[in-house]
Amino acid sequence: MTKKEFVELFGAKAELKTKVEAEKLTKAFLETLEEVLVKGDSVAFIGFGKFEAAKRAERTCINPQTKKPMKIAARKVAKFKPGKNLLEKMNPVVEKKAAKGKKKSK
């Protein structure tokens, strides 16, 4: 989904009158989220998920073209951990079948 498609869907769900309003709200949300992550903080939406800034350590890897080792510098990355509700909606639980042949012991 492109940003344009997302903004249109967002505007329709929020019952906004114009696409300009939807674009403005989307931009404000993304800028705010970006500011928080750049500061190194996290944002948690209960049930949806958590956005957080994390540090990735320096590491060594092999350049596939030259086969020589090269270093990748340490840096900050953004991470997203989905919440329970989002995971359940993405992965609906199929009815669990009762285990056959197992009896409770007294």
TrEMBL record:
SMART domains: BHL. It comes from the Bacteria. Keywords: DNA condensation, DNA-binding. It holds the Pfam family Bac_DNA_binding. GO terms for molecular function: DNA binding. CDD domains: HU (cd13831). Belongs to the bacterial histone-like protein family. This is HU family DNA-binding protein. It comes from Fusobacterium mortiferum ATCC 9817.
